[in-house]
Amino acid sequence: MEDKIVVKNLSKVFGKDPGKALKALKEGKSKADILRDQKQMIGVNDVSFSVKKNEIFVLMGLSGSGKSTLQRLINRLHEPSEGDIYIDGTDITKLNQKELREFRRKHFCGMVFQNFAVLPHRTVLENVEFGLELQGVDKDKRRKKSREIIKIVGLEGNEGSYPAELSGGMLQRVGLARGLAIDADIMLMDEAFSALDPLIRTQMQNELLELQERMQKTIIFVTHDLDEAFRLGNRIAIMNDGKIVQIGTAEEIISRPANDYVKAFVEDMDRSAVLTAGAIMQPVAERAFTGDGPRTILRKVRKNGLSGILLTDTKMVLKGYIRAEELAEYIKMHQDKEDIPFDSSLVHEPAQVYEDTQISEVINMYTDHKFGPFAVTDRDNKLKGVIVKGAIIAALSESYVPNNHDEQ
Predict the structure, then answer these.
(1) Total structural domains in the chain?
(2) What confidence category does residue 115 fall into, taking pLDDT thresholds of 50, 70 and 90?
(3) Which residue from 202, 394, 141, 130 is spatially nearest to 279, judged by alpha carbons?
């Protein structure tokens, strides 16, 4: 997937002489040293990363870690002290103010904030069309576009309502709709759901993921909440003292923390809610094919010491599960025949999960599972691996590191 945003050696100093502070950083001085000696604050310190097109990239960290500052640097709401920011190949740090305004208009949906940032004297419709109005879009055109977005975010019927008449969740939808109405590629969301109560917050997270499926934006989402970061982010960047200390998927971060800071961050995380079937699956030792005869299948089973075997076609599409005991009994009943016909009653519905199924869901399914391993497939039903009970138990251990299955 191509890079939408590329950040190189980006730093931000809040103070009168950023160059002096940057020089001190390069000499090994700490953020605290520079604040004490120079009365200058290091907001972001030599950060480099990229964001893929149409991914949700989460900036995660405690208060003061630099996550919100970094987000504001990306569209130059803060001016960088050093470094480059490339968006679709254009280094926006080199643009003058007129060029920057035009670039923002085409590429950024605007920001969705924690405090909703809606205009109290405007109706829902007027709030949603506000960004289009600033762009000089014709009134009829912006009204039509705004009504379409209002419907998408679930506010249809509230177009004439004022902010004081809306709940917190509805206010946040107004802010989200205003950003979406501009219809640019990149959306910046800063603690967008932090002010909501837990139930509404979860609902808004679900709705954001559903909207992303439909609208395919590149989203940079700032949060201090680890559960929210792991739920929303395709990848997460964990920040501390203005630096990014680790970038990865939820699985990578919880399974392979880069240092003690990250390890402490994730130590109370429920691993079963983060790790997926694809992370703990094992290679399939042997499989039966739809053209195999009963004796051929039994030979595969015995050679590999299996209690049963998964059945696929030649394209690896999963077809079922055959129990060794039943197969042996069937062959014994027909042992006087030279060619034993295959009986479809030998094929059972396999226990099956997708690669992205969370382990917590696999655990719940195990209580209803009577025999055989879990078959792990992709969305085209192609067999990718298997999960045995021991693998689930091991995965819940803090010392567990998922295998890399990219070669399958």
Answers:
(1) 2
(2) low
(3) 394
State whether 323 and 174 are in the same domain.
no
Domain extent for 155: 3-275
Alpha helices in 258-353 (DSSP H): 260-266, 277-280, 294-303, 324-333
CATH number of domain containing 331: 3.10.580.10
If DSSP codes are grouped into helix, strand and coil, which group holds residue 214?
helix
Closest CA to 276 of 358, 213, 342: 358
CATH number at residue 83: 3.40.50.300
Q: Are residues 327 and 262 in the same domain?
A: no
What is the C-alpha end-to-end distance of the chain, expressed in Å?
A: 20
Q: How far apart are CA 329 and CA 336, in angstroms?
A: 13
Q: How far apart are CA 209 and CA 206, in angstroms?
A: 5
Can you tell me the mean pLDDT for 370-381? 83
Q: Which two tokens stand for residue 66?
A: 């630099």
Residue 221: what are its φ and ψ, rounded to 5°? -115, 120
Domain end point (choices 208, 241, 275): 275
Residues 145 and 172 in one domain: yes
Q: Is 238 left (phi over 0), alpha (psi -120 to 50) or beta?
A: beta
- Strand (E) or helix (H) holding 146: helix 139-152
User: Rounded to whole angstroms, how far apart are CA atoms 131 and 276?
Assistant: 40
Same structural domain, 24 and 94:
yes
Q: Are residues 185 and 315 in the same domain?
A: no
What pairs with residue 375 in β-bridges?
A: 352, 386
Domain end call among 213, 244, 275: 275
C-alpha–C-alpha distance, residues 363 and 388, integer Å? 11
**Each residue of 15-30: pLDDT tens digit?**
999 999 999 999 999 9
Dump pLDDT digits (tens) for 117-171: 788 899 999 999 988 888 888 889 999 989 988 988 888 899 999 989 988 888 8
C-beta neighbour count of 44 within 10 angstroms = 28
* E strand or H helix that includes residue 84: strand 82-87
Q: Is residue 153 part of a domain?
A: yes
Give a yes or no: residue 41 inside a domain: yes
Beta bridge partners of 276: 358
**DSSP string for 63-74:** TTSSHHHHHHHH
Q: Supply φ then ψ for residue 334, to 5 degrees.
A: -115, 25
User: Is residue 206 within a helix (H) or strand (E), and if so which, with residue range?
Assistant: helix 198-215
